[in-house]
Design a protein that fits this description.
Blueprint: E1 6-15, E2 20-22, H1 23-27, H2 34-41, E3 45-47, H3 56-70, E4 80-84, H4 95-103, E5 109-113, H5 119-132, E6 139-146, H6 156-159, E7 164-174, E8 179-187, E9 195-196, H7 208-212, E10 219-220, H8 222-243, E11 253-256, H9 261-271, H10 282-285, H11 292-300, E12 309-316, E13 320-327
Parallel strand pairs: 4-5, 4-6, 11-12
Antiparallel strand pairs: 1-7, 2-3, 6-7, 8-13, 9-10, 12-13
Helix pairs in contact: 3-4, 8-9
């Protein structure tokens, strides 16, 4: 590691499709209601990318282009692009490679990370190690998913939850006491049976049978996932606070993965965080999987101040979960 180098976020941006899918519209598609969805999830609407010829790379490129412009960054100066997604444009090439071409980052190397809803945290930590080592000076981390592409809109258990969107941050080195201070990342592979997409990989390649049986859509055992998410996300958030001797009053913001309002509330209560310190936009966007945390940072950017202590926390398929403690790098 290069002496005293830390990775700090120096810019954030996001992009969501214009088209909205409201609870009322969903109630005309499946046996549900606005009250049922709102009570159980906190979601009122979500954004849907309708264009058949546009996918995760398109949304990501829009977010990255905005990020480059606002940070006055030449795309040729980008060293690395990491895209966290479970809805890549295709299995290969990596969506990050497509994005690098779309934004003109032709000097960067690029790859994808698949860790479901925890993907942005896994990618952020990965990108930070390239900065801390001195190998890279400008790294773009993207969290993006076109969840509508793998949602069965006849399954009311899952179709009410997910939306489409992309968020991106720029990481750069600093010698100040800023940026990513600590990270805890965990997995429990035995949880994979409760939240998965059965087909599309090498175990169950596409066939008439996999399509007929709807195995290319999300499968989720909601009760099991909810139970694990509440305990694991709350535990890891409390653990990173204790490890760094942080009290609730030391935390400026909790940025939780936007999966379910009840999970967010449970995490905040465990940490002792007041409601006004929690970033919540699930009511507008639903669960955009890897996109939720950077989209929150994008929306709250003007309220963030240099040196703010921030906790990012997530839980997702795999099972994967984790928390990152960072000190915000700038004031707008």
């Amino acid at each position: 590691m290069s002496a005293n180098l830390s990775a700090v976020i120096t810019g954030v941006s996001g992009w969501v499709p214009e088209e909205k899918l409201t609870n009322e519209q969903l109630a005309n598609m499946v046996d549900t209601s606005d009250e049922w969805i709102t009570t159980r999830t906190g979601i009122k609407e979500r954004r849907i990318l309708k264009s058949a010829d546009k996918a995760t790379a398109y949304m990501s490129s829009k977010a990255v282009q905005k990020l480059l412009k606002k940070t006055n960054t030449n795309p040729l100066d980008i060293d690395l692009i990491i895209c966290a997604t479970v809805t890549p444009d295709m299995l290969f090439p990596a969506t990050a490679c497509i994005i690098s071409d779309l934004v003109g980052a032709t000097n960067a190397f690029a790859f994808d990370i698949s860790a479901a809803c925890s993907g942005f945290l896994f990618a952020l930590k990965t990108g930070s190690t390239y900065i801390e080592s001195g190998f890279c000076k400008k790294v773009i981390i993207i969290g993006a998913d076109k969840m509508s592409s793998i949602v069965d809109y006849e399954d009311r258990q899952t179709c009410v939850i997910f939306g489409d969107g992309a968020g991106a941050v720029l990481l750069e080195p600093t010698k100040e006491n800023l940026g990513i201070r600590d990270t805890i990342l965990k997995v429990d592979g035995s949880g994979g049976e409760y939240l998965k997409m059965v087909a599309g990989g090498s175990l169950n390649p596409p066939s008439l049978s996999t399509v007929k049986n709807k195995h290319h859509y999300i499968y989720q055992d909601g009760k099991v996932v909810f139970k694990f998410a509440v305990s694991r996300m709350a535990d890891v958030s409390a653990e990173i606070m204790e490890k760094n001797k942080l009290s609730a009053k030391d935390i400026a913001w909790l940025v939780p993965h936007q999966a379910n309002l009840r999970i967010i509330d449970a995490t905040a209560r465990r940490m002792g965080i007041e409601d006004e310190k929690i970033m919540i936009n699930i009511q507008k966007y639903g669960n955009t999987t890897a996109g939720t945390i950077p989209l929150c940072l994008w929306e709250w950017e003007k309220k963030l101040n240099k040196n703010d202590n921030i906790i990012l926390a997530a839980f997702g398929g795999g099972f994967t979960w984790g928390a990152i403690y960072l000190k915000w790098g700038y004031s707008v």
